[in-house]
Write a structure and sequence with these properties.
binds adenosine-5'-diphosphate, 3 helices, 21% helix, binds magnesium ion
Length: 148
């Protein structure tokens, strides 16, 4: 399924809809370059867990941020990890899968290593336009305008 986002608010809303799946204990791997909108989308996903957007950041040295709650949510940023050993030592594999809810930035570093439940590719277009491709969610289950 492919959705065009015209600004950060729309990307946030797409993230919130994805977050509604993550609360079941699923993971999303997010692909896209610097400034694509990965963190913005994850702020939206966090909203589905009741996490305030300001609490989800691109902290320079935070690889795994854990948010407690009824279903713990892990925000994982692999930007600074270069190889499989560093990824493993950081505990990344303990925070993805096995019923854990996780959203991963720079997921290209996990390609060929693990698959998440949901895959999101964000491609930048002109200005604020982003083409967001989502795999792992059945289009018939997705209602972009659905509230809550
Ligand atoms: N359609 C859009 N979706 C998401 N972010 C957008 C969009 N258009 C412009 N932006 C801007 O692009 C930047 C995305 O930043 P961020 O979410 O931190 O990206 P990343 O985590 O991929 O590096 C923000 O400054 C945001 O305001
Ligand atoms: Mg980011």
């Amino acid at each position: 399924m492919t959705i065009v986002s015209h600004g950060p608010d729309e990307t946030f809303e797409i993230g919130r809809r994805i977050g509604c799946y993550l609360v079941k204990g699923l993971s999303v791997l997010i692909f896209g370059g610097l400034g694509a909108g990965k963190t913005t989308l994850i702020k939206g996903a966090g909203a589905a867990f009741g996490i305030p957007a300001r609490d989800i950041t691109s902290a320079t040295y935070t690889i795994i941020a854990e948010y407690g709650g009824a279903v713990p949510f892990y925000h994982i940023d692999l930007y600074r990890l270069d190889d499989i050993k560093a990824i493993e030592e950081a505990g990344v594999f303990d925070s993805i899968g096995n019923g854990k809810a996780a959203a991963v930035e720079w997921a290209d570093k996990l390609e060929g290593i693990i698959d998440g439940d949901i895959r999101v590719d964000i491609a930048c277009g002109d200005g604020d336009m982003r083409t967001i491709t989502i795999e792992g969610i059945d289009e018939k289950d997705w209602d972009y305008n659905k509230a809550g």
